[in-house]
Design brief:
The complex is a heterotrimer of chains A (527), B (169) and C (437). Chain A has 527 residues and is α+β, with helices and mostly antiparallel strands. Chain A has 13 helices and 26 strands. The chains are: A alpha+beta (527), B alpha+beta (169), C alpha/beta (437). Chains in contact: A-B, A-C, B-C.
């Protein structure tokens, strides 16, 4: 395989220890916790405070397990796996201890699951269902604390908090901006912040995902959906060139929220707030829903069977100038590059930029200055990055505006072109003079891949249906190429990718299967 | 009687200037981190101001290169730091078991009644007294010990309370 | 001498010899009483020799756990290239205990000397003495003593001309019982919340500022100069029963007893004689009911148990309790045990650091139930619940505060059940249930 293998950091092989967890033999590097060893053995040891990205707190005491020959139950998160260890998770002693923890966690919990956003994806619910007590023996009044707005996107529902301190540790160790603390002590303790210092750090929203219970909630998605109503599609954030892996959560074909999806090579477990909250554009309703073909003064709705040949007719014999969006997939950009190759011409894209915002606790993770997902893919595929989108447009070119930001395109520039073809999700006001408008799916509505700034090619999956007659962008461009007699029509994004892999050396040897859920780095490595 | 007012509108005057700053700086060489000086620094703020306000925490955060939230987490852990203004005399009566069995509750009652505070944690109308119960003061053989500001009075009984209060001008 | 009572003839005043002696507080007076001879001698020995002497003496930690001091010191690996630290635990906050307070009030230089020897023995250049904030007078005395010792060149960059640097730093606590737990203390010194740490790593590997650290109690360190001067054999000879319990030990006595105060006896002393003879027995017209012999965290003893006890590490265990910190709390027939156990539970609920679930929630829940029983609103099921909560709080948390809260509850119900039952109401008449029936 020509693709660059994952960098092997293990220069010296770590010493391995062999142990048995719930009867399953497992071998792990020395120093691995029993909890992590359990994951490798395929057993999830219940836990709350432990998180693989954070320091060990050992405070929830939920991961107590029975280790043979040990006098006391051991916290699996804070106990190293040792040679010959025999670990039992479900002995009566361990189950009783965890049941005791769950009872304690619930005595002051409001048990307001019916109105809690976390319900259905709450670890307090899950582990209680799994091994918690059926009833509480509390006969005294519960403790109550009011809800507090932590600023940023975060709401703190104090009474639901189990004080696992994941949020405090995240802000301290990952964001390295200690705006959260544990205030007070004993059962008066709660997560606190300092008056006037809010959770406004670019990466603060991650505390919502880290919270194992319903204590920290997103204000943005508050009360919008029950978790079990949501569909989840793996995707890649388009907010910048980092390529954070995300889950697009939709309900009734509407995106409700983005959440980070772990990828140790890219974003660990996290995503920034800019990316997290930038989803509304996916739901916009002013989409082009049918192909439009010019009939005199007006654009008329047409079937694809009409629009595609009409597009081919317009293109035939003309140089093309492709103004592409840097959020188009590798697949679509590849097919557009084929069009340029066939007809002669050039392709260009612009990238909006903004300030970098790193997450200091994770090396090479940042909200990048380039606020587009696939500028690097576009460059690899021969597109020219420019500050002024239509620079180099020459008289007589057919201008294809492929979902690029058209805001700065002027009538004079348009007049230069022999014809204007819009391949887009929307039809901006200043492109209404176009000859043809071909409606395409947006990022969340089609399959494809992006290439991030380190050359990692990552797949994204369709999360919702495209409106009306809009089609995946690679399908539309592939059909145009076929109508021109310059290529085949494609029926799957994976076929386009395969064609690209056999044609463009950077992608050589890659397939969708090989990319999997972690992606692969283009040959030649990161640029 | 005039009520003591804590003027919250007055601009905060930094504690760590002049001698106090020197005192704090002199501690740094004895610890490998500046953070280790947080307890001493908070004590200095409390000694000067009687309590530790948000501004005080922010100042400590600044001089020790910490965040105010961190400092607040530490302040609220330790019960001797006052996060609210207290009376001129803060009267802390130990009521933990060893003192409790020697009549500490009567001592608390006598202080509450005779200072005019009436309730634990409330500052008397004249701003002179705040009475609180505290956990073990570590002088159980001298029950009931009472801390009045930095002073320590041993073997207090309800009967001794008038005499003690008379000594507090 | 002795304070607040003159030493009884049956006491063995080693540490308490100069309690109440105003002239022994200052450096000059202390030197006249043999002060710093131990340090002088220690500095002429190698650290390993000191550790051996302390090991041979049988000295065990006086803070509560009773771990052999010499062995603890031997965990500090010399020449590992890391800074070592000594932390002196002067956070004495175990209810019923006030012996370290008197050591620091009356013989502050004894502690300075003990710290200096300890620091030298474990290869530390810095010793932190963590004194609880409520100890205003001991703080003044200790600060004064440290200043005098610096000025006299006893400690500092060239301790007693030995070429060894020994800095002693007083660190003032600010109100947290849990900071008497050694890892919580290290966090507190580092400027954090006083949360106990998970062990391992143990302090000798990664302690304060992540460096090798030894933590010793005030009384332990104060005994060291005597051992250095008089020798291990002398100290070992101070033992009345178990050879595993050597030396003299300060016991703080408080509660309902004629002569509360500090008493120093040789380990193995009969507890009955101690209570009735040295401490003067019950107050006039009253009788003893119960004793908590080692600070509120140890099991309550009935008088039968207490009177059969030999006062050493093993003796208290044999009679259903522990030596702990040596804080003896005596309850007489005027006390209601339910009320007092409820008060003890409230103490632990107040002092829980809030890390571990069972402790944070369990101490508060226990308190709620105990106070409800105290107020006559309890049920028999509550007693079962208390046992069950206590079980959940025992042996499952980072430190033992949670266990400590369970101890008086469990021992209290077991040994004084009738007092609980007297307060538990009969089931209330429930009209609906009655109608259905």
């Amino acid at each position: 395989m020509a693709t660059t293998a994952e960098p092997t950091t293990a220069v010296t092989q770590p010493k391995m220890v062999n142990l048995t967890i719930e009867g399953r033999p497992v071998s792990v590097p020395e120093g691995t916790s029993i909890l992590e060893a359990g994951k490798r053995a395929g057993v999830l040891i219940p836990h709350y405070c432990y998180h693989p990205a954070l320091s060990i707190a050992g405070n929830c005491r939920m991961c107590l397990v029975d280790v043979e020959k040990a006098p006391k139950l051991a916290p699996a998160c804070a106990t190293a796996a040792a040679e010959g260890q025999v670990v039992h998770i479900y002995t009566e002693k361990a189950l009783e201890a965890r049941k005791g923890v769950l009872e304690m966690l619930l005595i002051n919990h409001p048990l307001d699951c019916p109105i809690c956003d976390k319900s259905g994806e709450c670890e307090l619910q899950d582990f209680t269902y799994q091994e918690g007590p059926a009833e509480s023996r509390l006969r005294d009044p519960k403790r109550f604390n009011p809800v507090e707005d932590f600023g940023g996107d975060v709401l703190y529902t104090t009474s639901r908090c189990i004080l696992c301190t994941r949020c405090v540790r995240f802000m301290d160790e990952m964001a390295q901006d200690t705006v959260l603390n544990v205030t007070e002590r004993g059962d008066r303790a709660l997560i606190g912040k300092f008056e006037g210092k809010d959770l406004t750090h670019e990466w603060a929203g991650n505390v919502i995902d880290l919270c194992p219970v319903g204590a920290l909630l997103s204000k943005d998605s508050l009360n919008k959906a029950r978790s079990w109503e949501l569909d989840h599609a793996p995707s890649i954030c388009t907010g910048c060139s980092q390529g954070c892996n995300i889950s697009i959560d939709t309900r009734d074909n509407m995106v409700i929220r983005f959440r980070p999806r772990p990828n140790e090579h890219v974003n660990k477990y996290f995503m920034c707030d800019t990316g997290r909250l930038d989803y509304r554009w996916i739901n916009r309703q002013d989409r082009v829903e049918v192909p439009l073909v010019r009939r005199g003064e007006s654009l008329a709705a047409a079937d694809w069977d009409v629009a595609i040949p009409a597009t081919a007719a317009l293109l035939d014999g003309h140089r093309v100038f492709v103004a592409a969006s840097a959020n188009l997939s590798n697949e679509t950009l590849y097919l557009l590059s084929q069009l340029i190759r066939a007809n002669g011409g050039t392709g260009a894209f612009t990238v909006l930029t903004g300030p970098e915002a790193p997450l200091p606790g994770v090396p090479d993770l940042s909200l990048r200055a380039d606020r587009a997902a696939n500028g690097d893919g576009a460059t690899l595929l021969g597109f020219r990055r420019t500050a002024s989108l239509l620079d180099g447009l020459t008289a007589g070119d057919v201008l294809i505006v492929a979902d690029a930001d058209a805001a700065n395109i002027t009538p004079a520039q348009l007049a230069l072109a022999a014809a204007v073809i819009v391949i887009g999700t929307t039809l901006p006001e200043n492109l209404r003079t176009a000859a043809i408008v071909l409606p395409i799916a947006n990022h969340a509505e089609e399959d494809g891949t992006f290439t991030n700034l380190r050359g990692r090619v990552q797949r994204f999956y369709q999360a919702k249906a495209a409106p009306g007659m809009a089609r995946p962008s690679w399908w539309v461009v592939g059909d145009v190429l076929a109508a021109l007699g310059k290529g085949n029509a494609y029926y799957l994004a994976s076929e386009v990718f395969a064609a690209m892999a056999s044609d463009v050396s950077a992608f050589a040897g890659m397939t969708y299967d090989a990319l999997g859920m972690r992606g692969l780095v283009v040959s030649g490595g990161a640029k | 009687m005039t009520a003591v007012t804590h003027d919250h509108d007055a601009p905060y005057q930094p504690v760590f200037v002049g001698e106090r700053r020197k005192e704090l700086d002199a501690l740094f060489p004895f610890y490998p981190t500046k953070m280790a000086c947080i307890l001493p620094a908070l004590w200095m703020v409390q000694e000067d101001r009687g309590w530790i306000s948000d501004e005080g925490m922010a100042e400590v955060a600044e001089v020790l290169e910490l965040t105010p939230a961190y400092v607040k987490g530490v302040v609220t852990f330790y019960t001797m730091y006052n996060t609210h203004p207290v009376g001129k005399y803060l009267i802390q009566v130990c009521t933990t078991t060893p003192c409790n069995i020697c009549g500490a509750e009567d001592v608390v009652g006598a202080f509450l009644e005779q200072t005019g505070c009436g309730e634990l944690g409330i500052t008397s109308a004249d701003g002179k007294f705040t009475v609180i119960e505290v956990e073990c003061l570590g002088a159980c053989g001298f029950a009931t010990p009472v801390m009045i500001n930095e002073g320590f009075v041993e073997s207090v009984t309800a009967a001794r309370v008038p005499e003690i209060l008379a000594g507090l001008k | 001498m002795g304070y607040p009572h003159p030493s009884h003839a049956r006491e063995t005043p080693v540490l308490s010899q100069y309690f109440g002696d105003q002239d022994g507080i200052g450096l000059d007076g202390w030197r006249k009483r043999g002060g710093y001879n131990g340090l002088q001698k220690a500095l002429s020995m190698s650290p390993a020799e000191i550790v051996d002497v302390v090991k041979a003496s049988g000295l065990r930690g006086r803070g509560g756990a009773g771990f052999p001091t010499g062995i603890k010191w031997s965990f500090m690996k010399p020449g590992d290239g890391k800074p070592h630290y000594l932390c002196c635990n002067a956070d004495e906050s175990e209810p019923g205990t006030f012996k370290d307070r008197e050591i620091m009030r009356w013989t502050p230089h004894a502690l300075v000397e003990g710290c200096a020897i300890g620091a030298y023995a474990i290869g530390a250049e810095t010793a932190y003495i963590y004194i609880r904030g409520e100890f205003t007078e001991p703080l003044i005395r200790m600060r004064q003593a440290v200043r005098e010792a610096y000025d006299a060149g006893i400690i500092g960059k060239n301790a007693m001309g030995s070429g060894k640097r020994i800095d002693i730093v007083i660190h003032k606590g600010a109100g947290a019982y849990i900071c008497g737990e050694e890892t919580a203390m290290m966090n507190s010194i580092e400027g954090r919340r006083g949360n106990p740490r998970i062990k391992p790593p143990f302090p000798a590997v990664s302690g304060v500022f992540a460096q090798p650290t030894t933590i010793n109690n005030v009384e332990t360190l104060a005994a060291v100069p005597h051992i250095i001067v008089r020798g291990a054999e002398w100290y070992k000879g101070l033992s009345l029963s178990s050879p595993k319990s050597t030396g003299s030990k300060l016991f703080s006595v408080c509660g309902n007893i004629a002569k509360p105060g500090n008493y120093e006896v040789t380990l193995g002393f009969p507890f009955k004689d101690f209570l009735y003879d040295l401490c003067g027995g019950p107050l006039p017209g009253r009788t003893f009911k119960a004793v908590v012999p080692g600070g509120i965290s140890v099991p309550i003893q009935t008088m039968e148990e207490a009177e059969a006890t030999k006062m050493d590490y093993e003796g208290f265990i044999d009679q259903g309790s522990m030596l702990g910190s040596g804080g003896v709390i005596v309850f007489d027939d005027q006390q209601n045990m339910v009320k007092q156990i409820a008060r003890a539970a409230r103490f632990f609920a107040h002092e829980s650091c809030a890390q571990c679930t069972q402790c944070r929630e369990g101490t508060a829940w226990t308190t709620k139930i105990m106070e409800r029983i105290r107020d006559g609103e309890g049920t028999h099921e509550d007693l079962d619940t208390l046992f069950s909560i206590a079980d959940n709080m025992t042996g499952k948390t980072i430190c033992v505060l949670s266990d400590s809260c369970a101890v008086p509850v469990v021992s209290g119900i077991n040994k004084f059940r009738s007092e609980f039952e007297a307060l538990i109401k009969k089931p209330k008449f429930h009209p609906v249930t009655a109608a259905v029936a």
